[in-house]
Amino acid sequence: MSTATATSTLDLGVGGMTCASCVARVEKALKKVPGVQDATVNLATESARVQLAGTEAELAPLLRRAVRDAGYEPRAAAAAIDAVDASPWAGFAPVGIGLALCAPLVLPMLLMPFGIHWMPPAWLQFLLATPVQFWLGARFYRAAWGALKAGSGNMDLLVALGTTAAWAMSMWLWLTAAEGHEPHLYFESAAVVVTLVLLGKWLESRAKHQTTAAIRALHALRPEQAHLIDWDGSEKDIPVDELRAGDKLVVRPGERVPADGRVLEGETQVDESMLTGEPLPVAKGVDAMLTGGSINGDGRVLLQVTAAGAESVLAHIIRLVEDAQAAKAPVQRLVDQVSAVFVPTVVGIGLLTFVGWWLAGVGLETAVIRAVAVLVIACPCALGLATPTAIMAGTGVAARHGILIKDAAALEIAHRVGTVAFDKTGTLTVGQPRLLALMPAPGVDEAAALQTAAAVQSGSEHPLARAVLNAAREQGLAIEPAADVRAVPGHGTEGRVQGERILIGSARWMRELGADLSAFAEAAEAQQAAGATTSMLAVQAGGAHAVPRALALLAFGDEPKPGAREAIERLHAAGVRTVMISGDNRGAAEAMARRLGLDVEGGEVLAEVLPGDKAQAVAQLKAGGPSPARGGAARAAAARGGAQLVAMVGDGVNDAPALAAADVGIAMGSGTDVAMHAAGITLMRGEVGLVPAALQVSHRTVAKIRQNLFWAFIYNSLGIPLAAMGYLNPVLAGAAMALSSVSVMSNALLLKRWRPD
Fold this sequence. Notes:
Blueprint lengths: L7 E8 L4 H12 L4 E7 L4 E6 L3 H14 L3 E4 L2 H4 L10 H19 L10 H15 L1 H12 L5 H21 L11 H25 L1 H8 L4 E5 L5 E5 L8 E4 L8 E6 L2 E4 L1 H4 L5 E3 L4 E2 L4 E2 L4 E7 L5 H14 L3 H30 L4 H14 L3 H20 L2 E3 L2 H6 L5 E5 H5 L5 E7 L5 H12 L5 H12 L8 E6 L3 E6 L2 E6 L1 H6 L8 H9 L3 E8 L8 E9 L6 H10 L3 E5 L4 H11 L8 E2 L7 H11 L7 H8 L6 E5 L5 H6 L2 E5 L4 H6 L2 E3 L6 H35 L5 H20 L8
Helix pairs in contact: 1-12, 4-5, 4-8, 5-7, 5-8, 6-7, 7-8, 7-13, 8-28, 9-11, 11-14, 12-13, 12-14, 13-27, 13-28, 14-27, 14-28, 17-18, 20-22, 27-28
């Protein structure tokens, strides 16, 4: 066996789980397997995610055996998700048979209010109830026996104990009755409870199917075939799974794009709505990027694959949504702790109920029936479904609107955010600055200065570098790349042009090197006051320790993103403080902030922040709470307990540390992969307007979790005492128990109706 310490993740389907106690038992069994670092089980998806200190091939058989030994069935992880939509009545046969067999037993109860007192003979009740109890209800006995062997209890144990007690007592009363006397039997209670629980589980399974609709919809975006251009120029169809980067494909009108790629020929309109939530088609021409899963419009295009299979954007999105739905929210861990002791406690309460009523002199029959009612109504199905169903519905509906939530903890706490910090360039602004002006020093030729600046910036992807290069190309200047180019983080770029060391970067950097910028002070101040970002071009003759000589001042301008100001206003209206973090000089940063509606005087602009200091700025915001300048809005945020929670919104590599440092990291989908990996939430369209929407879907989801937990606990906290006091018979208790699970699932599914404001 390999001694490597590599870690891996395994997703495993788990069949046969019925309640929160099952979740705890499966997790316990999986964590006992050597090499398992952690295990998280989700009742709603009937799956487990296991962190392994080793390879999947070595440990997968042991994990499946552990699941089986715990009394459950190991399955393929994606079986439930990949299943084709079944008929609405799939799996209803056992329920239908149970209802048909119970109908003659329930009919007399319905006739009693009309003064008709009739019951089928005891032998007929026995023939109707026994198949329900031991054939249709066999699943409860199997699962209960598995739980007992594992030294724990679950919902099935409570149902099996309760219904068996009612059936056995009916048999005893029937067989010991005096000749000619028809005793009151409880066969109908046992049979109806089993049938109601089966009905509840069937309704649950239908609702669970709807909670995984988002994942199935994403999987459905992947076409099965692609039209490959072969080496001889001919077309042939191959499975999408065989595509590789560099392949050339034909995408015909109306087809789904099979993989990520760049357009080589043709023009078209592409529908990316399932990936980004944006309903309008997007125009695509030569060199435009297409995303696999989007729908081609009326143009035929030739595509060169840049990423396929697991490396594609669609595969990344699917992984993010699956990760979020498989993760366990922090509140669920508390629920699991309660569930671990819940079933033994209920069995104890049931025994106390029986003994108490028996000693009170009500008779053996009444004591047993009241104990049965306690066992039946206490089944913790709803408790186990309350949180995961809401998480799944919330992440699913968010994904449909372009908000990818990869972390259940981020979804749970985002609604408590009191401060949202934004990176400026590319997040609040378009991120495509233009060179507004180049002001050379006396004796310096303007075109030569621009040509020199472009040479140093020719290898950089920074937005300001692209602006310099675009300006040089517009003037028709020849650009020869500089030698020995090196980026100086947080300051600028340096390189050699025609043997001279050239620097381009911030005025602060130039001052640190001792450069005299007095000739540009007035012009720089005027540009910054107008909202421009300024940089300096300098030459450093005489070695690395020589004082640079300023050659020119460069002024850049950017525009706010459409909808950015409205998004900030929506956050303010919700009582959330907004802060802009920028590496720009203070004048330019504050000018842009005013255009965006930020409170400059209230401290909502942090300017001249180096990339490495952004994480520290976020930490200071977390420690400082909301600004008093926000007044009532800040107090509202503080009142709901979110004043100290900070969300960071960014799109660049240099934003990754700040995204990780924030309580909630939000990455713009138009940004870098590094930023998206560091963030708990990704906005696929890169629109600032999705930031308040992300907080809103978190608020709605957490509200559903709280409502579900309230109903789950209220059913038990009210139902158990009522049953123990004799106010509920087993049939009503069974109906209430089934209703609790269905109501929790239905309430969670209401999230699917959510739309961003």
